[in-house]
Write a structure and sequence with these properties.
about 425 residues, alpha/beta, Rossmann fold, 4-stranded parallel β-sheet
Length: about 425
């Protein structure tokens, strides 16, 4: 016999799930602002990882950024993440990476960017997207000149400082006639132009210039032109492997000591493959050398421990650390890390100070200013071996080292 079906009255009390839902919603409402505040800040290191500047920046700049995040990331008030990519010294590739990072990947800051043409493209994108760009590996002084931006800071060096500073020092020593061997793109031309301007202003003369493609391996024809000019100085307006290859071949040709070689952007990264014998009498101008102070040595030791070849950092790699440190210092006081103009304004308002460059400031045009140092290569007898290649000759004060603020043509500079 079929049992009768009993229908139970529906309870008027809410189920447990329905009772919990409003409380859960309230908790989520309270939690969402905290979660939003904890959106990771993303920093992108964009540089040459495989070409002629791979040793100059490359993985070394990534290591420097990692060290800065470890040291100062906790003070930023939110998690900090790091990404990196190879722009291959191609403007279209660099711009495409930067656009994807800014638009899709949540990158707030792009740092480093050697190759001036790529740097100018990234600076334009940072302004368009209201993000931050810090050019620690970029050279062109146009970043703080007519193409300056409220979203860009130019950190470590520039073509004006290196060209004018080194030319001024050598002309004062009697090296009055110059021939330039120049990388045939924005950076090299800017560097040559700055040095040539200083040579002419000091009453010197220009004997000519030879332009070479980026990433050249054979400099023989260019060096023969330079040698035939009879110039006192052959100014190498290039960088990275181009500078190293030119100096090696100049030594093979026996150009020095009859003519002086000026590596306008030679630094510690070039030296292991060159050695001191091939670089005797060479002067450089730089804002950082690993063996200047206790602070520079301490950073260099930490960096070398991380580096796969235990290399010492150059000025541009040290500049990545310094730039990221200052960026992270200001983030805690900025409401939205994604507001690039506000972040850069805060960076300009806070004086800079670190063991790498010492006290400094960021000017209205975005130029980070600090002292520069004139160094000379040591003799083999003076060197202790290892990475001991240079000795200090003169400190160039910050007020003398950089283009005057009023001379750059930056629209951000008033009056």
């Amino acid at each position: 016999m079929k049992r009768p079906t009993t229908t139970r009255p529906t309870s008027t009390r809410p189920s447990a799930a329905r009772r919990i839902a409003p409380a859960l919603a309230a908790l989520l409402a309270l939690a969402l602002p905290a979660r939003a505040a904890e959106r990771p800040v993303r920093i992108g290191v964009l540089n040459d990882m495989s070409g002629p500047y791979a040793d100059y920046q490359g993985q070394g700049s990534v290591i420097a950024a990692q060290l800065a995040i470890e040291d100062f990331g906790a003070g930023a008030g939110r998690p900090v993440e790091l990404v990196s990519a190879d722009h291959q010294n191609k403007t279209d590739i660099g711009a495409a990476i930067a656009r994807r990072w800014y638009d899709q990947d949540g990158v707030d800051l792009i740092v480093d960017v050697p190759n001036s043409a790529v740097a100018l493209a990234v600076a334009n994108l940072a302004r368009e997207k209201n993000k931050v760009f810090i050019g620690s590996g970029a050279g062109t002084a146009e970043l703080t000149g007519r193409q300056c931006s409220p979203n860009t800071v130019h950190w470590t060096y520039d073509t004006w400082s290196l060209g004018h500073g080194l030319a001024k020092a050598l002309v004062a020593q009697g090296a009055r006639s110059w021939f330039f061997l120049t990388a045939d793109y924005t950076f090299g031309k800017d560097l040559e132009g700055s040095a040539a301007e200083e040579v002419k202003a000091a009453g010197g003369s220009l004997k000519g210039a030879a332009r070479h493609p980026l990433g050249s391996s054979d400099f023989s024809s260019f060096l023969l032109q330079a040698q035939a000019s009879g110039a006192d100085v052959i100014g190498l307006a290039n960088a990275g492997d181009d500078t190293s290859n030119a100096l090696k071949q100049a030594a093979e040709f026996g150009i020095a000591p009859g003519q002086r070689l000026a590596g306008l952007i030679l630094n510690i990264t070039n030296m292991p493959s060159l050695g001191l014998k091939a670089t005797q009498g060479v002067y450089i101008l730089t804002p950082y050398y690993w063996d200047l102070t206790d602070g520079t040595r301490a950073f260099a030791r930490r960096y070398a421990e991380r580096h796969p070849r235990h290399a010492m950092p150059n000025d541009m790699q040290a500049g990545v650390y310094s730039a990221v440190e200052h960026y992270l210092k200001v983030l805690a006081g900025v409401k939205e890390a994604g507001d690039g103009r506000a972040v850069v304004a805060a960076m300009k308002a806070l004086p800079t100070d670190d063991p790498i460059f010492g006290p400094g400031e960021i000017r209205a045009d975005g130029r980070k200013v600090h002292p520069m140092y004139l160094l000379a290569t040591k003799t083999p007898a003076e060197s202790r071996g290892g990475w001991d290649y240079f000795k200090p000759v003169r400190t160039v004060p910050a007020g003398e080292a950089w283009r005057p603020l009023a001379d750059g043509g930056c629209p951000l500079v008033k009056g």
